[in-house]
Amino acid sequence: MNPVFNQSINIQFPNAISLTIKREDLIHPFVSGNKFRKLKYNLLQAKAENKNTLLTFGGAFSNHIAAVAYAGKEQGFNTIGIIRGDELFDKIEENPTLKFAQENGMKFEFVSREDYRLKNETSFIEKLKDKFGDFYLVPEGGTNELAVKGCEEILTDEDSVFNYVCCAVGTGGTISGLINSSIQNQKILGFPALKGDFLQDEIRIFAKKDNWNLVSDYHFGGYGKVNLELIEFINSFLEETKVPLDPIYTGKMVFGVIDLIGKNYFPDNSKILLIHTGGLQGIEGMNLKLKQKKLPILKKND
């Protein structure tokens, strides 16, 4: 685990507002950001239960799939990925995320989108046990009570100076951990990467406080959707700050926060902490899509 640090964003904002980003993306070269936090206690639990196989779920460019494959290899587990989309079966070599996971020992089971929706059904899990034997189940996106416990360690004592803590939201585990470890008078803002309001209920399962809001205006059309404006923003942010952002999660959140500053959403003198949840491995796959659409690609740090 590498040391995480808070980096000031040297952009002049109105009303004496300051931005700082917590570089969780630097925590580990391959198990970065919130994936490291979510897996920490789950892997300890898997060992305590004497399980030697991890099974989890994810899509074609899933940060979670890549992280479980590498963490599993590093800690001596076999890994199985149940992948959404049976059309991906013969496209592993074309997909940077799946190729990386396979190179790190993960075995795949490709299922239709219809079957994938059954991933939380007991009967579906039992069929997987019949096929693969005993395993430790890590939920899609890694979110469960142990994941939230890991994410509660993101904020430290030095973060008590911030009025707002902002993060991207996928399955709700990261924001739940931030809510639980936040201090009085801090507001936690989540920026969903997906359309829909179902996340409110997911977060309430784990969150022990009510000092949070979801800002649902910056999903750019839904999960995995991007446009020219977002690409140009991420590239200019990298150029200005030397901080790379992923287009699925953190890029949308940072865009949203800066847009809200311009709309006077935050009070004067607000100190805002952005949580960089990693996910940079997904840039390579996104760039393949962008090239197909004849859009500019996302730049990388030199």
From TrEMBL:
Q: Which InterPro entries match?
A: ACCD_DCysDesulf, TrpB-like_PALP, TrpB-like_PALP_sf
Ranges annotated as spanning the membrane: none
Keyword tags:
Pyridoxal phosphate
Cofactor(s) the protein needs? pyridoxal 5'-phosphate
The domain of life is Bacteria
What sequence ranges are listed for the domain Tryptophan synthase beta chain-like PALP?
19-278
Which family is annotated? Belongs to the ACC deaminase/D-cysteine desulfhydrase family.
Q: What is the name attached to this protein's record?
A: Pyridoxal-phosphate dependent enzyme
Species name: Flavobacterium ginsengiterrae
